[in-house]
């Protein structure tokens, strides 16, 4: 995960994420495994873990249930406590198990698997540097094969930019695929936030940024203008898909109005690049996850800052 040639975005989140999603709420990156918690990831990704520990995602475990709105919202959806609520766990926590079908326990706020997917099926593959080989001495060819196998086993690697962004959007847009529309309505009516202004660049390049790649693996690198422009476009692609699905999931006027505003914001961003990228026009015509991924693939290596540069945020969260 430290190979800069494989990364096209700025350190997405330990959700990481966002801001970010429990594995069961993942958009598009379907995985059959289960979450095991962030400890295994922290064994190697020490610098990334330190960044996570300074985020609201990390503090969510001990603080989010103390929010003055929490009790009212939890009761409105028929639950008694946030940490006992499957609905709340979708986005606010990481609940882990030791084995498939085993007892699940809340172990953290949004963390590694919130963005990168439930790791039970891929963590062993991802950590296999070769018999008797330490991570620092892993041959380049072995690393490429290891990462390929990790992805095949269900890992949402940072290079899968659309899927990481989709995970963030599903929670920050109050539109997780597993969230019943009626429940979402009750949450919104009882004070649950729905951030219409959540935008990937602004929220991923601030406190949650964790880009530690060779050759200087201790430096948390910033994205260049081209990278920021791609992230901005893909983030809006994920927002469009998320909101378009959510608006069909409820007849609640307030909820629908909010999702329509998300659609309008995303549409404006994608309209700005559709002249350069045909895949943007295809996505606008049919806002599906498949078309979102196609757009992300189409703009790899492109610099779209000429089109969306003026839209990029001037500061980060």
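^ structure tokens above, recovered residues below v
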């Amino acid at each position: 995960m430290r190979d800069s040639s494989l990364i096209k975005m700025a350190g997405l989140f330990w959700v990481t994420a966002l801001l970010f999603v429990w594995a069961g709420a993942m958009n598009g990156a379907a995985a059959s495994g289960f979450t095991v918690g962030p400890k295994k990831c922290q064994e190697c990704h020490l610098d990334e873990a330190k960044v996570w520990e300074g985020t609201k995602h990390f503090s969510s475990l001990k603080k989010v249930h103390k929010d003055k709105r929490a009790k009212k919202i939890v009761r409105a959806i028929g639950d008694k406590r946030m940490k006992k609520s499957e609905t709340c766990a979708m986005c606010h926590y990481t609940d882990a198990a030791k084995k498939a079908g085993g007892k699940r326990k809340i172990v953290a706020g949004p963390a590694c698997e919130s963005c990168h997917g439930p790791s039970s099926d891929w963590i062993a593959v991802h950590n296999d540097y070769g018999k008797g080989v330490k991570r620092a001495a892993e041959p380049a060819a072995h690393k490429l094969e290891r990462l390929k196998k990790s992805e095949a086993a269900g890992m949402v690697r940072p290079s899968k930019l659309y899927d990481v962004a989709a995970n963030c959007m599903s929670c920050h847009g109050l539109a997780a695929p597993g969230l019943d529309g009626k429940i979402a309505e009750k949450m919104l009516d009882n004070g649950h936030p729905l951030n219409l202004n959540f935008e990937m660049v602004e929220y991923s390049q601030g406190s949650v940024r964790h880009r530690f790649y060779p050759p200087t693996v201790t430096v948390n690198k910033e994205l260049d203008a081209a990278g920021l422009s791609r992230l901005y476009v893909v983030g809006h692609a994920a927002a469009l898909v998320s909101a378009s699905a959510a608006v069909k999931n409820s007849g609640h006027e307030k909820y629908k109005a909010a999702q329509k505003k998300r659609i309008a914001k995303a549409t404006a961003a994608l309209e700005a690049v559709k002249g350069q990228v045909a895949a943007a026009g295809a996505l606008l015509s049919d806002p599906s996850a498949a078309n979102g991924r196609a757009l992300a693939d189409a703009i790899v290596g492109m610099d779209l800052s000429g089109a969306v540069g003026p839209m990029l945020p001037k500061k980060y969260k």
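The chain has a mean pLDDT of 90.
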